[in-house]
Design goal:
The structure is a single chain. By secondary structure, the protein is mainly α. The protein has one domain (3-168): Four Helix Bundle (Hemerythrin (Met), subunit A) (Up-down Bundle), CATH 1.20.120. Helix content is 88%, strand content 0%. The protein starts with a helix and ends with a helix. Protoporphyrin IX containing FE binds at residues 12, 15-16, 19, 22-23, 68-69, 72-73, 75-76, 79, 93, 97, 100-101, 158, 161, 165-166, 169.
Length: 169
């Protein structure tokens, strides 16, 4: 097997593994973990905060997201010869790729920013040593709502990514 074939297969494997991790975690957290935590109210919110802000899950998600998108762009450029993009294969992968870049934008531009703000607010509340004030409670609820909707938008984008990649590859 030629070296460039080995490199291509390696890159494709890294691409699929990182993409599957990113999408899989988003589906499980949005579809099951977050709704269960909401049902448990206080305890559940605390669990979610520890999971998203104090465990290494966020770093893993970010690393997987960047790896999937960057390896995808390299694969895309290596496939994209003249006219390729206008074949049904090319159109499907292009739409899937654009949806993946948009999902990365939502992740970095909304989810990450909201999670940082939640972490700051959580620390502020802990520092006072008292239960959250009404204003802090309202702020936290608004941030959680933003996160709820942004993660749903991400899931829709991921469905477009998966359909695009499945039809295109
Ligand atoms: C959530 C992010 C992504 C996931 C889960 C994902 C998933 C996949 C999967 C599972 C395959 C293999 C499909 C098969 O062989 O049947 C694939 C292939 C491919 N993906 Fe992605 N992908 C993602 C992002 C991207 C991005 C951002 C691009 C580029 C803009 C891209 C470009 C490609 C290309 C060009 C191939 C075909 C490689 C080949 O020629 O064999 N992907 N992707």
């Amino acid at each position: 097997m030629a070296l460039n074939q080995v490199l291509f297969l390696g890159l494709r494997t890294v691409h699929v593994l990182s993409g599957v991790f990113w999408v899989g975690v988003a589906f499980v957290v949005t579809g099951f973990v977050e709704p269960t935590a909401r049902r448990l109210k206080g305890e559940g919110q605390r669990f979610l905060q520890v999971l998203m802000l104090q465990s290494r899950l966020r770093q893993w998600i970010m690393a997987a997201a960047w790896t999937a998108v960057l390896s995808g762009i390299v694969l895309y450029s290596s496939d994209a010869h003249y006219g390729w993009v206008f074949t049904p294969y090319g159109v499907a992968v292009t739409i899937g790729g654009i949806a993946a870049v948009a999902a990365l934008g939502v992740g970095m531009g909304v989810l990450r920013v909201v999670a940082d703000r939640m972490a700051e607010l959580g620390k502020e509340i802990q520092r006072t040593g008292r239960p959250p004030s009404e204003a802090q409670g309202q702020q936290m609820a608004a941030l959680q709502q933003k996160m709820h909707w942004a993660s749903r938008v991400e899931v829709v984008l991921f469905i477009v990514v998966l359909v695009g990649m499945a039809l295109g590859a």
